[in-house]
Amino acid sequence: ATPTALLVGTGRGAQLGIVIRGPEVLESTRRIQVVLLDKTGTLTSGRMRVTEVHPAPGEDAAQVLRIAGAAEDGSEHPIGRAIARAARDARADATLPPATEFAGDAGLGVRAVVEGHRVVVGRDSLFGELPPVLAGALAGERELGRTAVVVGWAGQPRGLISVADTVRPTAAAAVADLRRLGLRPILLTGDSTAVARAVATEVGIAAGEVISEVLPEEKVAAVRQLQQDGHTVAMVGDGVNDAAALAQADLGIAMGGGTDAAIEASDLTLVHGDPRLMADAIRLSRATLRTIR
Ligand code: ADP
Ligand code: MG
């Protein structure tokens, strides 16, 4: 590979909105066979909004949202940002009570102390059995393709908040583009199987190519397993929860507008967050390296 051709390819990438860490990255891009696609923030816009608050029996919906919003105020996850924003918007003075001891568990949820309560907002698996009203609401929300998280304090689940996200307008075309290039797209997400399948259907990925309900370290394991099976793997993601998998992949691709951790762990960044740029990057690397030989 002549350095000049690689530099020209890198420059062409920048024009397209693909930031390439170094010229050598184009070589690994060309060899990719499997593309793991994160859901939230990658295939979807990640611009989530709260659609419903379901209180547990004896709880007040406004209070559930207010406490959850305060606990999520320090979160940079799209779910956390949506909950904090909705909680602020619901208040005449747009303020939230202060939270202390904030801690985020990537791929699980957040914890914080609000008004003396130990608050947890996150996956239902963080809680024991849910009261029937909440379990029913959770199933209903998932049927609608919505992500729902549980809010609890003092060891008790107090409510459920559902958030809606929209599939990016170019996601289905991006998946079709990858297939046309001979690549195998797989959806990889920490979200529930029901929600993951709804998004997969919308973008044209079969249920058998969906890996769901995985923790960040299980995303890494999924990448490693495919590599052990002899595949060259690209991973596309945007979140803190994706960073380790992005680093493990043969090619890590970050969505522009994603978290710094994802961008730092990646070889390529798609500046405008348009998933169609994934196929453009692969086409570019193939074209660049063809001119070299
Ligand atoms: P994805 O792989 O689709 O990007 P994540 O791994 O970021 O999803 O999150 C997986 C699940 O963890 C979410 O569906 C949600 O249930 C929970 N979760 C993650 N972060 C938060 C948060 N800040 N607040 C509440 N729940 C969260
Ligand atoms: Mg994500």
From TrEMBL:
Task: Please indicate which part of the intact protein appears here, giving the first and last residue numbers and the full length.
Answer: 514 to 806 of 859
The family assignment reads: Belongs to the cation transport ATPase (P-type) (TC 3.A.3) family. Type IB subfamily.
UniProt name for this protein:
Heavy metal translocating P-type ATPase
Q: Where in the cell is it found?
A: Cell membrane
What is the superkingdom listed in this entry's lineage? Bacteria
